[in-house]
Amino acid sequence: MDAKTYESMQGIGKTGQALEKFGEEQNQLNQKLLKQIRILELQNNLLSRQMQEVQAELAKLKETQVRNILKLGRCEAEIEILKQENKESEKDVALENLKREVNRLRLTAKLNTNAIERLTRDQHEDD
């Protein structure tokens, strides 16, 4: 892309001089605009690369997010399983405690029965 659009033809008279001045100013303006366009193109290329990098990073983050959501779901399911196992374990402990209490009461009843029989026997023997 060439910034020079006016080629001097060395015009005659005031019209030629005015045209010459206008053409040179137009060429200078075109050079400035071309320079700005090239700068903008470089900035655009840089921004395009940065955007691609950001999109790649975003894709990685989305992938990580999906993995974390799946992991969270598995953890929540495991927590529910552990809660159920804990409830069953608590039931088992309560059942064991109840069995011990029943055995203790049986033993107490047996001891009381033996004591009553002994007292009754002793009382009959005294009569």
Number of DSSP strand runs: 0
Query: What is the count of helical runs?
Result: 1
Q: What is the chain-wise order of helices and strands?
A: H
Going by helix content, strand content and strand pairing, the class is mainly alpha
Quick check: average pLDDT?
Answer: 85
Biggest sheet, open or closed, and with what strands and sense?
none
Compute the gyration radius: what is it?
50 Å
- Given as residue ranges, the uncertain stretches (5+ residues, pLDDT < 50) are none
**What's the shape?**
rod-shaped
Fraction of residues in helices? over 70%
**Beta-strand content bin:** under 5%
Distance between the termini: 138 Å
Polypeptide structure, described:
It is built from one helix and no strands. The chain starts with 12 loop residues before the first helix and ends with a helix. By secondary structure, the protein is mainly α.
